[in-house]
């Protein structure tokens, strides 16, 4: 018999890992609620037509498609035929009778747009929502990249105000500050600026080719970008202009001023520059001035998804070698994909799994997350067990996470259990403790042990 395994690119999560992930999610949930965002959940699978064509050619290839199993058919004869074909899938190539109509969601943004269109008469615009759910991509698994992973999104639809962009930047700031993640860099750019770049190169129809190429700058460097631009038919003088733009240096104001001069013949490019200036101005009014990380204009930032139309952002962490831990941007007509025109939106996403990996590598999780239980009551059986149950009830009644070892096992076995669980305290109740109506509280970290009244014990555990 073969050993049980899980699919490549997926993971099991131990109790400790789940607690750490919940710590991240709960931190973000509190921030979202503070900013007035509402929770939303959508199905794990969507109709294939909902997803296809929304993420670009590369994204479409990474969508996990679900084979129909025939059970949705009404006629019994069709059911039998399709189920027979389904049973043959493992033995030979797929039959033409087996079709694909559904797929696992690739991200949370397109399902959100679909939800807005379906419920447009029930929601109040602007609609601010946050969503925390798993998504699936048929990608090659590697460090920080999985086939099943969680996303955590915050979006606003029904408003074109750049205050929304600034608030989403503040959410990033607040989240990574509260999680104590160092060396965070939030890169910001505009797809309008990128469109303007294509215009000044004389190749406005090649905007997507240019965008995809320069988005790879961190991976293949400038020489690789040049080769890809040449392959896409961008002329040498156009490549030279692109090089001058993406190699601009200086602070945000300096870069934007230089860009305004370069883009002076492109109305679209100038519009993008103005939107970046306004967003950063709003952010300066709303931001926590004590945050040590930074928000920087990065002209090479492209964000590969087709639906972005305005300001775009991407978050990285310089303290750990890993991909982006967040990103997003403005999409002016995403709901138009489903027939609802003129509803602009903007959103950002947190990469929960990569954020977890960063915090794990930097040892940023609070120690108390290792175990939810604060104290274990040792079980000696008999009268001591009955007394311990009463103490256990009192501890839980005041909100302390406590448990009793269920069997009257050897003392050494119970101590090993507490140690393996990483429990900070144990309570020992013997004849002397019962006689004096007290308990012995042992600190597993320091080894200190004290005999206390139940009230004193509760106060010590709450401290």
Structural class: alpha+beta
Count of helical stretches: 17
For the biggest β-sheet, the strand order reads 1-5-6-11-10-9-7-8
Largest sheet, strands/sense/barrel? 8 strands, mixed
Number of strands: 16
Distance between the termini: 52 Å
Oligomer designation: single chain
Strand content: 15-25%
The whole-angstrom Rg is 28 Å
- Are there runs of 5+ residues with pLDDT below 50, and where? 89-95
Question: How does this model look, in words?
Answer:
The chain is an alpha+beta fold. The chain contains 17 helices and 16 strands. The strands form three sheets. Strands 1-5-6-11-10-9-7-8 form an eight-stranded mixed sheet. A five-stranded mixed sheet has the order 13-12-14-15-16. Strands 2-4-3 form a three-stranded antiparallel sheet. A hairpin with a 5-residue loop joins strand 15 and strand 16 (449-452). Helix 8 packs antiparallel against helix 9 (217-231) and helix 11 (252-262) runs antiparallel to helix 12. The longest helix is centred in the first third of the chain and has 20 residues, at 15-34. The radius of gyration is 28 Å and the shape is elongated.
């Amino acid at each position: 018999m073969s050993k049980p395994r899980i699919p490549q690119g997926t993971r099991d999560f131990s109790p400790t890992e789940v607690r750490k992930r919940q710590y991240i999610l709960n931190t973000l949930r509190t921030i979202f609620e503070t900013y007035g965002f509402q929770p939303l959940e959508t199905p794990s699978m969507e109709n294939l037509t909902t997803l296809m064509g929304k993420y670009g050619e590369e994204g479409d290839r990474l969508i996990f498609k679900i084979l129909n199993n025939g059970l949705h058919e009404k006629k019994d004869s069709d059911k039998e035929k399709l189920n027979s074909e389904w049973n043959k899938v493992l033995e030979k190539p797929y039959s033409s009778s087996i079709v694909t109509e559904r797929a696992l969601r690739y991200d949370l943004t397109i399902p959100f747009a679909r939800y807005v269109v379906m419920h447009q008469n029930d929601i109040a615009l602007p609609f601010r929502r946050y969503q925390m759910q798993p998504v699936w991509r048929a990608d090659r698994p590697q460090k920080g990249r999985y086939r099943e992973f969680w996303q955590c999104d915050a979006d606003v639809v029904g408003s074109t105000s750049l205050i929304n962009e600034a608030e989403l930047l503040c959410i990033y700031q607040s989240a990574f500050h509260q999680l104590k993640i160092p060396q965070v860099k939030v890169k910001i750019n505009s797809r309008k600026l990128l469109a303007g770049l294509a215009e000044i190169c004389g190749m406005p129809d090649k905007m997507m080719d240019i965008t995809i190429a320069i988005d790879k700058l961190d991976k293949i460097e400038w020489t690789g970008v040049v080769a890809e631009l040449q392959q896409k038919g961008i002329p040498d003088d156009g490549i030279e202009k692109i090089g001058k733009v993406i190699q601009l240096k200086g602070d945000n104001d300096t870069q934007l001023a230089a860009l305004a001069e370069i883009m002076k013949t492109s109305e679209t490019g100038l519009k993008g520059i103005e939107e970046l200036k306004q967003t950063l101005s709003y952010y300066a009014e709303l931001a926590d001035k004590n945050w040590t990380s930074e928000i920087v204009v990065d002209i090479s930032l492209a964000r590969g998804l087709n639906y972005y139309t305005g300001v775009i952002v991407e978050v990285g962490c310089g303290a750990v070698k890993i991909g982006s831990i967040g990103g997003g941007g403005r999409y002016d007509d995403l709901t138009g994909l489903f027939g609802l025109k003129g509803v602009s939106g903007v959103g950002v996403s947190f990469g929960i799994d990569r954020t977890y990996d960063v915090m794990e590598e930097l040892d940023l999780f609070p120690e108390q997350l290792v175990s939810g239980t604060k104290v274990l009551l040792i079980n000696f059986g008999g009268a001591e067990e009955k007394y311990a149950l009463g103490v256990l009830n009192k501890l839980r009644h005041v909100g302390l996470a406590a448990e009793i070892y269920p069997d009257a096992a050897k003392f050494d076995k119970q101590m090993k259990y507490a140690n393996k669980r990483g429990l900070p305290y144990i309570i020992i109740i013997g004849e002397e403790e019962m006689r004096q109506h007290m308990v012995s509280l042992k600190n597993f970290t320091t080894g200190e042990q004290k005999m206390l009244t139940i009230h004193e014990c509760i106060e010590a555990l709450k401290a």
